[in-house]
Design a protein that fits this description.
Elements lengths: L2 H9 L1 H8 L4 E2 L2 H4 L15 E3 L4 H13 L4 E4 L16 E4 L6 E5 L4 E4 L5 H9 L3 E2 L12 H7 L6 H4 L2 H4 E8 L4 E5 L11 H5 L7 E9 L1 E2 L3 E9 L2 H13 L6 E6 H10 L10 E9 L1 H15 L4 E7 L2 H12 L1 H8 L2 E8 L5 H15 L2 E7 L4 E8 L4 H20 L18 H4 L2 H14 L16
Parallel strand pairs: 2-4, 3-4
Antiparallel strand pairs: 1-2, 5-6, 6-10, 7-11, 8-9, 8-10, 12-14, 12-15, 13-14, 13-17, 16-18, 17-18
Bound molecules: flavin-adenine dinucleotide.
Length: 467
């Protein structure tokens, strides 16, 4: 944003106040500062923060920004990891913290309609009372908003069986970058009239439209669950087990993977009880009707068993389940003990290519002398690849960037994708033309221009500098 645009934003303050009231427009530097960062730790202070409480107020704010070419960044709770909600051109932040209403729960049609500022956990709690859940379950559920989840297509361990927001949203109400009101999708579980704009907007990181309402597809809560922990002597055996599990009919509720480096760290920095020669570990859950669960768990145990299996534990009580998950939960604190900083990527490869990915990452770790720790959602081939570094050491930073470049080449050569759930934001925008060909990328840019002709919505995100 130019100095003139910032002056303009300040000059338009009374108009923002007339739309939402003086108490809901912030422009004091101390007040707007917290709206300038996300979990990427990048920061740019916005000029103005607006806190609307209704769809109509959002529409009026977007219209005002459209008429005056002011950059506008929608914001949930700033838990994103790619800088997607950082207002790089300053301008106006549109924060959804006052739009947290449950509009409707329709049990007979398994539908919930919500405002975008409500947290994922608040949705789970409310629909849980009616015996349902909404499958997307990012670890940040207690803080992150439905608007942010939809804009990033965020998911978690349950995606393997129940999918991401793209499989669990029926429709949207939104405002385009021209300030036009649109409704996308349907209220039914089938519908094929017109283009699928719902799935286009999901994952678009606030660059096409501002979501003001979401119609979510609810799923009945499973009656029961079993949790298993399988420890293998090496990554090859664990990967073989993942392929066998995915090749049989019982789809796990979760299928999480931890590599040997991560196990070593957990052993050093926590009291988790793991076999000495453990080279990889899977945490597997199955869900369903209690009467069917023994058979389902047995089918998973059979598929998980191979010559490299060292130990297979099953937990049924809450205490036992918590003990098995404690290994996975020990990871984040352990990472913090090993290096001051981490570059946290979330690459994806086809499940059958996980062994080649891990083997390739081990080679890159040695080549660039950068410690790499891997864990993640094996059932989707979505691996959180953590490059552990000390960012105060410029030489290490340079090596880590070269290593990252090689990691992305490796992933693309294995028919994978650069991000499974964190998205592009600022962090990966200059890499996406390695995954998407120029013609397709240009078409995406044209779509962006149709939705947002003045390029006010979350500018300088998603697309490379060169486009
Ligand atoms: C501890 C931690 C754990 C995490 N675990 C996971 C995980 O397991 N899986 C996962 O996928 N992610 C995870 N994340 C990343 C992050 O939580 C998700 O991307 C989340 O969906 C962001 O939600 P938010 O409300 O914080 O959105 P923000 O970070 O505020 O915004 C994210 C993007 O959404 C856009 N946006 C927000 N609201 C709207 C709206 N109403 N309309 C249009 N665009 C909008 C913003 O412009 C921005 O581009 C984690 C983050 C942390 C800090």
């Amino acid at each position: 944003m130019t100095a003139d645009q910032n002056k303009l934003a300040a000059a338009l303050l009374p108009q923002f106040v007339s739309i939402i009231g003086a108490d809901h427009v912030l422009n004091d530097p101390a007040d707007v500062w917290p709206y300038g960062y996300d979990n990427s730790r990048k920061h740019t202070q916005p000029e103005i923060v607006t806190l609307p409480s209704s769809h109509a107020q959002v529409r009026d704010i977007v219209q005002l920004c459209f008429e005056d070419n002011l950059p506008l960044v929608p914001r949930g709770r700033g838990t994103g990891t790619t800088g997607a909600s950082v207002p790089v051109k300053r301008g106006v932040v549109l924060s959804f913290e006052r739009m947290t209403q449950f509009i409707k729960i329709d049990v007979n049609n398994r539908v919930a309609v919500v405002e975008p500022g409500i947290t994922n956990q608040a949705v789970q709690d409310k629909i849980g009372e009616a015996g349902f859940f909404w499958p997307p379950d990012p670890t940040s559920a207690a803080f992150s908003t439905i608007g942010g989840n939809l804009a990033c297509n965020s998911a978690g361990p349950r995606a393997i069986k129940y999918g991401t927001p793209r499989e669990n949203v029926l429709g949207l109400r939104a405002i385009t970058g021209k300030g036009e009101e649109i409704r996308t999708g349907v209220y039914t579980t089938k519908g094929v009239v017109g283009y699928d704009l719902t799935r286009l907007i999901l994952g678009s990181e606030g660059t096409l439209a501002v979501i003001t309402e979401a119609t979510l597809k609810m799923t009945p809560l499973p009656q029961s669950k079993r949790t298993l922990q399988a420890v293998y002597k090496n990554i090859g055996s664990a990967a073989e087990a993942v392929s066998s599990i995915m090749a049989q009919p019982v789809i796990p509720y979760t299928l999480e993977f931890i590599d040997g480096q991560a196990i070593e760290m957990i052993r050093k920095h926590s009291s988790a009880d793991l076999p000495v020669n453990a080279g990889a570990l899977l945490i597997i859950e199955v869900d369903g009707q209690e009467a069917c669960l023994e058979d389902a768990a047995q089918a998973i145990c059979d598929a998980a068993t191979n010559t490299g299996l060292l130990e297979l534990k099953t937990a049924t009580t809450q205490v036992e389940i918590a003990a098995l998950w404690s290994t996975r939960k020990a990871l984040s604190p352990a990472l913090r003990n090993v290096a001051p900083n981490k570059i946290n990527e979330d690459v994806v490869v086809p499940v059958s290519n996980i062994p080649a990915l891990i083997e390739g990452l081990e080679k890159l770790s040695r080549k660039h002398d950068i410690k790499i720790v891997n864990f993640g959602h094996a059932g989707n081939g979505n691996i959180h690849t953590n490059l552990l570094i000390d960012s105060t050491d410029p030489e290490q930073v340079t090596r880590s960037q070269l290593c990252l470049d090689d990691v992305f080449s490796l992933v693309l050569n294995l028919n994978g994708t650069l991000s499974g759930e964190h998205g592009v934001g600022m962090e990966k925008r200059n890499y996406i033309d390695r995954e998407i060909d120029p013609v397709t990328l240009n078409l995406m840019k044209e779509i962006k221009t149709l939705f947002d002709p003045h390029n006010i919505l979350n500018p300088d995100k998603m697309f490379p500098d060169s486009l």
